[in-house]
Amino acid sequence: MPHNARVFIIDDDAAMRDSLEFLLGAAHFAVTAFESVAEFLDALPHLGFGCVVTDIRMPGIDGIELLKRLKAKSTKLPVVVMTGHGDVPLAVEAMKLGAIEFLEKPFEDDRLVSALRMAFEQSIKNAKVSGDTADLSMRLASLSPRERQVMEGLIAGLSNKMIAKDHDISPRTVEVYRANVMTKMQAANISELVKLAIRSGVIEQ
Predict the structure, then answer these.
(1) Which has the least CB within 10 A, 17, 116, 156, 180?
(2) Looking at the predicted structure, is the pLDDT value of residue 75 above 60?
(3) pLDDT at position 205
(4) Which sequence positions carry the modification called 4-aspartylphosphate (predicted)?
(5) Is the bond preceding 106 in cis, omega lying within 30 degrees of 0?
(6) Strand order of the sheet with strand 51-55?
(7) How far is it, in rounded angstroms, from Cα 189 to Cα 178?
(8) Is 104 contained in some domain?
(9) CA-CA distance, 103 to 161, in Å (whole number)?
């Protein structure tokens, strides 16, 4: 979990906000509290990444509407919803809208802290996967059309001579393209090249 991971609390109950601020501050989260969804949405463009903890029933814009608006904006903030007794159907609806967890009040402090830690850890993993995918796409895009043809031949298990024959070029030229492919794709050998091709979708699993 990142140091001082940010948590945005949304609850119209001042006592609940104070209690959560104390709890999460003691657990080394950086906390910002809002008394309404409208206040949170006004501040959202300036908040950066964090995890949202919101009550589900509030005056004005409620937790369900918040989830709908975040989804419409494609905002990738993990959301934990807090529900009162009898709100479980609403909580299920919240999960369908993207909430990562719902906690029925009163809940154990450790459940909230654990849910938030899991949310941040998953976000870090997702960001890494997204970054890796973008990097791999850039490597593929750097290949010339001929290098792409040679790469496809290599991952199909063809020899340099066979690739040369298929594309009416010399084996020596294939060797040059092959070296370029391995360098641009950052593959040390054919096995690594095949794995990269699978991850990038060049080879369907």
Answers:
(1) 156
(2) yes
(3) 47
(4) 55
(5) yes
(6) 30-34, 6-10, 51-55, 79-83, 101-104
(7) 11
(8) yes
(9) 63
